[in-house]
Amino acid sequence: MEHRLSVGEQKTLLLYARDVYSKEKLLIAPNEIYLFFCDEDQFWADWFIRTTPKGYFNLLASIKGLRVRKVNCFCLCGAYNESDAGAFAIGMHHELTMQQAGTLSFFANDTAGYYHNNKGSVTVHIERIR
Question: pTM above the 0.90 mark?
Answer without folding.
Answer: yes
